[in-house]
Write a structure and sequence with these properties.
Largest sheet: 7 strands, parallel
Strand order of the largest sheet: 3-2-1-4-5-6-12
Structural class: alpha/beta
Number of strands: 12
Radius of gyration: 19 Å
Distance between the termini: 33 Å
Order of helices and strands: EHEHEHEHEHEHEHHEEEEHEH
Strand content: 15-25%
């Protein structure tokens, strides 16, 4: 058996460093490359040292042509523009990809869909196994309860997070909308202020909190007449996202081209 050869994009970021540590801690995995943007201060450094480990003999680079040529899969937690560009490059080489980046536009998603026509891509707003089980539960509960139960999604993250609602909150919103057989864009309410009037029946509300060093907390609230159901997930360490991404990397390698989700990886699509 050969080691799975993994390239990490966004190697100098929080998740990039966590993924490098996780790869070094798991048998059967090899760090085949580490990528950063052209202006990064980490370029030229050993990826292990960047992650707070002893040197691993892999240099952080911007180009990545040689790394991609020898890779089985790329794991990417970077930025929307960088993810789209990297997906196009990975697709051209038939390299599988796992994308945990959030904040994509409709145009970005269309480009990723096109890349998935040429290679296998797992894309998720959250790689945690627990969060993806939460999404499956959210879909089932939303399908079971009618519009007398209002749906609200609350999320909190650290004060450096740049997008809101979080990718995980949107993942949960999509799950709720799917359960109700509705389009999320048409039914979501984000950021209430002033004289908003009464809440629209069937709406899916979002609220975002930012502060401190919170890794990630999410709650899906089903508020009905005289009772309330709350589904909650609290992330305490980024390593849970890395472990999920590695599960996805093993699963997607060798798959037929297509755009997959963590629900596919975990067998939760029909839950």
């Amino acid at each position: 058996m050969f080691d799975l050869r993994i390239v990490i994009a966004g190697a100098g970021g929080r998740m990039g460093r966590t993924l490098i540590k996780a790869i070094c801690d798991h048998e059967g995995l090899t760090l085949a490359g580490a990528l950063e943007h052209a202006g990064s201060t980490h370029l030229g450094a050993d990826a292990g040292v960047v992650a707070g480990l002893p040197a691993v003999g892999v240099t952080v680079e911007a180009d990545g042509t040689a790394s991609l040529a020898g890779a089985d899969v790329v794991i990417d937690f970077s930025s929307p523009a960088a993810s789209v560009h990297l997906a196009e490059r990975a697709a051209a080489r038939g390299v599988a990809m796992v994308i945990g980046t959030t904040g994509f536009s409709a145009q970005d998603n269309a480009a990723l869909g096109a890349a998935a026509g040429r290679t296998a891509i797992v894309k998720s707003g959250n790689m945690s196994l627990g969060v993806n089980l939460l999404a499956a539960l959210t879909r089932r509960v939303a399908a079971t309860l009618d519009d007398t139960f209002d749906i609200e999604i609350l999320e909190m993250h650290h004060n450096k997070k740049v997008d809101a609602p979080s990718g995980t909150a949107l993942l949960l919103g999509e799950a709720a909308a799917k359960g109700r057989q509705r389009d999320l864009d048409a039914w979501s309410e984000r950021g209430r202020d002033g004289q908003t009037g009464a809440r629209k029946a069937g709406a899916i509300g979002f609220a975002s909190l930012r502060g401190g060093s919170v890794v990630g907390e999410h709650a899906v609230i089903f508020a009905g007449p005289a009772e309330r159901i709350e589904l909650v997930h609290k992330a305490e360490d980024r390593m849970i996202f890395a472990h999920g991404a590695l599960v996805a990397a093993r699963w997607v390698t060798g798959r037929q081209p297509g755009l997959y989700s963590m629900a596919d990886v975990l067998g939760l699509s029909d839950f």
